[in-house]
Amino acid sequence: MAEDLELQSWDLQCEHNHRMHRTSEMGCQQLVVRRGQPFSITLHFAGRSYEEGRDKLAFNTETGPCPNEASGTKSHFPVSGSLEEAAWSSAVESQDGASLTVSICSPADARIGRYSLTMEASTDYQGCSFPLGEFVLLFNPWCPADSVFLESEEERNEYVLTQHGQIFQGSSSYIFSIPWNFGQFEEEILDICLQLLDTNPKFFKSQDRDCSRRNSPVYIGRVVSAMVNCNDDKGILFGRWKQPYDDGVSPMAWAGSVDILQRWRKYGCQPVRYGQCWVFAAVACTVLRCLGIPSRVITNYNSAHDTNSNLKIEQYLDENGKVQQGTREYIWNFHCWVESWMSRPDLPGDFGGWQVLDPTPQEKSEGVYCCGPTPVKAIKEGELKLKYDVPFVFAEVNADVVYWMLQSDSSRKKTVNSATVGKNISTKSRGRDSREDVTHNYKYQEGSEEETAVLEKAKLKKTYPAEEEEGLKVKIKVSEGMNNGCDFDVFAVISNNTASERMCRLMFGARAAGYNGALGPECGSKDLLKVALQPHAEKTVPLRILYEKYGGCLTQDNMIKVMALLQDYATKEIVLGVRNIYVKNPDIKIRVLGEPVQNRKLVAELTLTNPLPSPLMGCVFTMEGAGLTRGQKVQELDSPIGPGEEAKVRVDFLPQQSGLRKLVVDFESDKLTGVKGYRNVIIAPVSK
What we know:
By secondary structure, the protein is α+β, with helices and mostly antiparallel strands. It has four domains: about 5-140, Immunoglobulin-like (Sandwich); about 155-455, Transglutaminase-like (Coagulation Factor XIII, Chain A, domain 2); about 470-580, Immunoglobulins (Immunoglobulin-like, Sandwich), CATH 2.60.40; about 590-685, Sandwich (Immunoglobulin-like), CATH 2.60.40. Helices cover about 15% and strands about 40% of the residues. It is built from 13 helices and 36 strands.
């Protein structure tokens, strides 16, 4: 009888495969590879060596709880002379005595997820089976045949491998960014992302069907969009847009996705409290990048939330020009979503490329709180009949704003603003912390022939007033130094572009506001009943905003909405000026002490000066950074920080990874919240 081929040991070559598949930062605890690209394993036999022709080797791969070949979740394939592109395959790579190195390759459309790998060896009809362990298969933007293939290496580095980023906030007239630690390769995150897929309702409804569809980034994107919010499922984040946040964490306090995902898993898939749009988007970006889908966070300024699909946001003003509450339609100062790169074979025509995925629960899509993937090209071209959710996202960047003002005779006067929505659509630049404006991807230039054609297709008519058009005009201007704790001025600049004098009423007010457009208490107002405007003349009317007025009612978004409404007594003409202003928090100063070398202790010195006229209580610094801190470092201050005094702490950390890293810091207190800072740190590799 022939001697059986006996497997003594094996090596999944994690270090080598991770380097080739760009998954090194996920650690060596498990093999993580990308589809459509070979990986190597080495088999060590006892007794005798492998002999081609005499010995027959084959492999089995299985994923999901009910693997079968028809669903693409199970495959049996022999070791052959060469690798195939369209199917699971294996081939001998090299042989050294009793050691055999084999290449295994998955098809570029294989299902992603956790796989078991088994080897079968047979000689003269005698066979043995050897379980070799598990590996995780991800999407592969480096593989031209993969549906998430991205041609530019610079873009692949930014949108798949980079673990930190900038998320743009503020208002269209004052854009700033906060740092974010995506941390998609940090400890546990891959396992959490796979658990997220196995927690989605579609998996419980039909495990076989769900796992069989995990080859499609369109399907995965839709699942992630639904699962990052908890509205229909055991999703990750619970959304709340107003205080209190005492039974959780304020959305402003998060500085990264890692702690959120780890909390979700630690507490048995209970939703983490609380998120708002940028938190939802950032967590989704982490999950998608972790799974191998190129993704980036997008900010749309003056973003419309159109609930009835009429491409109009209607706001109602009382007779004194104040916005009335009660409507569900808002203009968000900014709104964040994710763009993910993928082909769209499910759509007619060429609509691959960047796709909008929005996990913030706003409106339902096919009965579930998710949005997308919506082709950015379809939004730009006004193709509202394509799936998924094109009309909703189209409205977010194109809707008209209609103001209805109550008149003394109980009728309402209408004024339309066509140039407000969808401004300065922003994302982080590749390889830099600066802003890239991507508005041109979503819409043609205002007033252009192309824009007119798109709007006609969408049955939306816009009129943009010329700068020198006759009539009354109102603009809001602001002063320098709108810093938290300070008094400052805003100005209504009113002009009369007609040949006759106009007698007007000017209603000029400021109210605290949430970034989602919800209004809070008034913090300054003027009502001038007799404003005489000479022909072709201009007046500037100041309004002082006092800290003693806004300090107590400012939301954690630090936003104030300023509105100036000018009404002509004779003609009843109404013109409106609106501006959202951001009250700036102080900067956090970050010093890194020590030589930045891998596995060598460093110290971060964090300093913030209290700008307010009252002491800060309950001060806490939280610091984190992918490859730097192993989770969060939290430092509480024992005593209050008086006006003008410094809050200062020193925090030790031990960087585990070399290269460019980002140290992200958050500061919280009773009166000053969500203050962010960051420092880029280049960590030298440990010398060998």
